[in-house]
Amino acid sequence: MIIIGVDNHPSDQYITFVDRETGEYGERQLSHSEGEAEKFYRELTARRVSVRVGMGATGYSRWFEWLLAELGIEVWSEQHRSPKTHELHSGNCKTLKRFFRGEWLDEISQGMVEDFKLRRIGEKRWGEIKGSAVSGVTVNRALSTLRLIYNYADPGGFQVSNPVKHVTFFIEAGRTRIISPKEEQAYLAAASQHLRDIARIMLETGTRPEEVFRIVMASLDFVHRTVFNPLARQRLPGTS
C-alpha cells in the first residue's frame, strides 16, 4: 500500500508519500490545470496499487474527492473530523515533526519520547502569549497525538510498538487530565466485565461515553479491525 499525504490547493497539490512494502518515500508537486494530478492517481489505479490518501484541503477540493471516489481510493480528510480536532492534531504534528524529523516510526523509542517531553516543556510560547512557558497540558496534547498516530499505524500494517504507551503524562491541575497507564490498568482490573469493555473501547478509540453507547454489532469491522462511530460518523482504528 502507498500512503499519500496531500496538501491540496486550487491550482496544484503538494504530496508526500511512502510505499509500505518497499519503504520508498518522497515528495512531489502535481499541477491541476495540466491534468498532472488526475493522471498520477489514474496511473496508480491502472497499476492496481492499493492507495490511502490523507488530505488537508485549502480552496476547492470537491472535484478531487470525486476523482478519488471514482477510482475507489480510500481518503481521509479534515472533513472526517471536527475543525477543532483537526486543528489540534495538525498543530501537534508540526511540533512533533520538529523533534522527530528524519526518524522512522520504528526508530522512535520511549527514551526519545521522554526527551521530547523535557525539551518541549522548556520551550517558550509564540503568538499572543509569546514568552510564556509551554504548559504540561500542551505537551500532553502532543503526546496524545503521537500515541494516536501509533494506534493508526498497527491497523495500517506497520508493525511497530507504541513508544508512548509507558510514558507518564504531566499532571493537569484544575481540569480533566489524561489517566496514567498505571491508573488505567488498576481500573480495568477492578471494573466489571461490562464496564471494562466500555472502558477499553474508550481508551483505544478516544470515544466518549455517549458515542460508545451508540455502537452496535454492525459498527464493528473485524477484518480491518475498525469501529464505526455513528455519532461522529467516522471509522476508528481498533487494536488486537
Description:
Helix 1 packs parallel to helix 2 (62-71) and helix 3 (83-100) crosses helix 5. The protein contains eight helices and eight strands; from the N terminus they run βββαβαβααααααβββ. The longest helix has 18 residues, at 83-100. By secondary structure, it is an alpha/beta fold. The protein has a five-stranded mixed β-sheet, covered by helices on one side. It has three domains: 2-80, ATPase, nucleotide binding domain (Nucleotidyltransferase, domain 5); 83-153, no CATH class; 181-237, no CATH class. Helix 2 links the parallel strand 4 (51-57) and strand 5. The chain is globular, with a radius of gyration of 20 Å. The model has no long low-confidence stretch (mean pLDDT 81).
The CATH class of the largest domain is identified as Alpha Beta
Instruction: Pick out the low-confidence regions.
Output: none
What's the architecture of the largest domain, going by CATH?
A: 2-Layer Sandwich
Structural class: alpha/beta
Mean pLDDT: 81
